[in-house]
Input
Amino acid sequence: MFQYRQALVRLRAGDTVREIARTGLMGRDKLAELRSLAANRGWLSAGAELPDDATLAAAMAPRRRAASTVSSVEPLRSVVQRWFDVGVQGRAIHAALKREHGFTGSYSAVVRMLRQMKASQPPEVTVRLAFAPAEAAQVDFGAGPVLMHPDGRPRRTWAFVMTLCHSRHQYVEFVWDQTVATWLGCHRRAFEWFAAVPERVIVDNAKCAIVKACRHDPLVQRAYAECAEGYGFRIDACPPHDPQKKGIVESGVKYLKANFLPTRTFRDLADLNAQARAWVMTEAGVRCHGTTREQPLVLFALERPLMKALPAVAPDLGSWHRATVHRDCHVQFDRAFYSVPFALAGKTLWLRATDNTVALYEDYRHVYTHLRSRRPGQRMTVTDHLPPEARSFFERDRRWCCQRAAEVGPRCAELVTRMLSDRIAERLRSAQGVIALGRRYGAARLEVACDRALAHDSPQYRTVKTILATGADQQPTSAPETPAAYAKARFTRSAAELFDATGALH
Output
């Protein structure tokens, strides 16, 4: 109101409207209106007392023109108000009014009523959160550029950003995904980048951090809880649908996208991260921050001594997963297979995966720990985990057959060797059958039966079995016949056999 008061003083002093308007204090039309009002109320006389600000404001308040028409939406104001209160958009309200209430008015009429309702609401207010040095850091993911993945296809990258709330110093790393393992690895590298750990880390409700979002009792992801325990920080999850609680890192992600990404090109992910680290140290860290009005690296030098030191031994970070035991006694993780005892087939176990190991648990009981496979499709199998019949099946290989045959005797070993060296047919089961005959007839009889089978040049399972079943191995042995003699005796007849008693030829 000081403009009106000053204009009144100059009008009472005799200045004209043109002279006052020339100073830029007020326009001529407004000055003319003020002079007319002051003259009617007697404010221009020399002895009159100047009005106070409230009187001036009431006198100079703009007169609202009464509406000449009634809004076509007015009969449905209560309906529109109910939808407006729950956040329904104007287009949807207009369509619903036409569909459900036979409304024939325009969309502009609905917009005007919504503006009135919005103007009648109290304005939203907020406060800026302040953080003491070393008190907190905020973490978030942001979309990064599309690069060529090692598998040969273009893929979106994601920017992991951790910002210290006091100094605004950042750690930035671009990754391919937002899995739990990536989330934990980024935390480890961020703490190593700062060479210190803040008191608490403020996170959003991403699944890699919070399993169940809740304002009062959020459920923290099991692996992330182990990370917090190992490094000694507390997890502070934002309430659902309230990202303003981590506005510092939100602004940091926007600054990264607006300042770093648009003006640079990147060969691959390694080049992108190398440029990001250089940008943080040479540009983002030395700028005058818009809020603190200080350089982030300068404030970080004061904040770092107050932060927690890194643990002497880095925690073993692992991600937890639920895994079902298949009927082949294996669980699948990251496209590889790991064996468990056959008695657990069909059950669901806990699997904890680190960079080097995969540990399996039945509730709290440790089952087994495998070395982590580096090749998709690889099967990490422990023989003791298989059923007894499966173990015996895999144990009876060629080497096992040769060893057991050598224990029986040299002739048995020779017969098994000849069976396994067949160049046409696979005769492993035949060799296993010959070895099994030793359990029924004994090693001594089996050795003799193998000797007779070799003497007749018939290294067959059926030959050995027939010799043992008929007891031929226990009969006196004649001089071994050579293969040629055996063939001659088999396919030639003596003269006495060719002619019968009457002298007739057979």
About this structure: The two ends are 148 Å apart (CA to CA).
